[in-house]
Amino acid sequence: MEASSAGARSVIPRFTIPALSLAAFGSAISLRVTDPLLPRLASEFGIPLGQVAYVITVFSIAYGISQLFFGPVGDRFGKYFVIACACLACAGTALLCALAPNYPMLIAARLSAGATAAAIIPLSMAWIGDVVPYEERQPVLAQFLIGQIVGISAGVLLGGYTADHLSWRFPFFAVSAYFVVVSLTLFAFHRRLPPHALTTHKAEGAALRRMFNEFRLVLAQPWARVVLITVFLEGAFLYGAFAFIASHLHAVHHLSLTRAASLVMLFGLGGFLYAVASRGLVRRLGEKGLTRWGGIFVSLSLLTISLAPSWWWAIPACFSCGLGFYMLHNTLQINATQMAPERRGAAVSIFASCFFLGQSAGVGAAGWAIERFGTGNVIAVGALGVLAVAAIFSHLKKN
Questions:
Q1: Scanning 11, 54, 81, 175, which has its CA 20 to 30 A from the CA of 280?
Q2: Sign of the C-alpha dihedral, residues 87, 176, 96, 161?
Q3: More confident of the two residues 340 and 1
Q4: Alpha carbon distance 306, 303 (integer Å)
Q5: What are phi and psi for residue 48, nearest 5 degrees?
Q6: pLDDT by residue (tens digit) across 335-382?
């Protein structure tokens, strides 16, 4: 049930949403920390770069599929509570990654890490959708996503620095400790939430049947199908390219992995700019304009990275890529929160599932293609794909 009055929302503790943003920060680090680690892991385990990219792919697959479980669970037991539990589980799975004795065990640990991280960002978005009216939701979601945005940058930088100077196990130990602190914080805030922020709905019938029924209700909406197909393709084209930017700068322009990662982290700064300026951008461009220009910025940025004769072109390109991505993706997220308001947890979880399954498909295909066509060509294909996806969605959007 969506809260509609400012009075109802005012009783929510002040730092409740920032606490969710801290959880999103950890989730984003977990996802992106392995990107610049790929060359180090390839050397460590003696396997090709394309094959070692499975540490990204399996995380995304587990993350995407697990959405189909956590959405209904969040609706049934309370989204905020499930997020807190998931953070505690993330501490355990990150520790498994740090302690993995070989590559197959690292893959298994990353699979479990993706599954436990799956609840955090989608259920946070759905909970915000429960307590924030639609007309105010995009700026609030943008502010929440600052955690994810900064986490992407921090994960890439941490992975790059580790690849050059530390054991590859170090970032996983750090992530595990971080999630312990965040989970305790979320449990403390959960105890202080008012009744309208603890929205649940009673389960009826067999659990599996309920889950499929909720998904069926979402997929019955024509616009929901458009949003889900769009976000799947966005994830495939964008992250099939993005995951290999640091490796591209390292291999083609001979930058250290630390320096390459520091350039890629500008992606997060571009996203931060969007979060700060989101109210003005939404008012000036509307959802159609945000989608269209977001796709253009991402496409031009990735093409610049793939074709530039010198590494320094990546400085403005990574920054504008982050700005464009969040213009596009945050608009898709807003549409996702409204696909089925009465089953918002399930709806947003299907959305996130499609996004991360798209990522896994894109990174898997890119890993195969890199061995044959090189990183530059793969990044260029991703650029053109994002442009096409954004243009089509902008054309189909009614307002």
A1: 11
A2: positive
A3: 340
A4: 5
A5: -65, 155
A6: 776 766 566 666 777 887 788 788 878 888 887 888 788 888 889 999
**Residues contacting 50, CB < 8 A, separation 6+:** 367, 368, 370, 371
Q: How far apart are CA 178 and CA 22, in angstroms?
A: 10
Spatial separation of the C-alpha atoms in residues 224 and 236, rounded to whole Å: 18
Instruction: Give the pLDDT band (50/70/90) at residue 399.
Output: low
Quick one: tokens of 68? Answer: 């189909």
Neighbours of 43 (CB within 10 A): 13
- Per-residue pLDDT band for 296 (boundaries 50, 70, 90) equals very high
Q: Which amino acid is at 399?
A: N
The H-or-E segment that residue 21 falls in is helix 16-32
- Compute how many other C-beta atoms are within 10 angstroms of the C-beta atom of residue 244: 31
Nearest CA to 249 out of 238, 264, 234, 239 is that of 264
Percent of the chain with pLDDT over 90: 17
Range of lowest pLDDT (20-24, 81-85, 150-154, 179-183): 150-154
Domains of the chain: 13-195+205-396 (1.20.1250.20)
How far is Cα 321 from Cα 341, in angstroms, rounded to an integer? Answer: 31
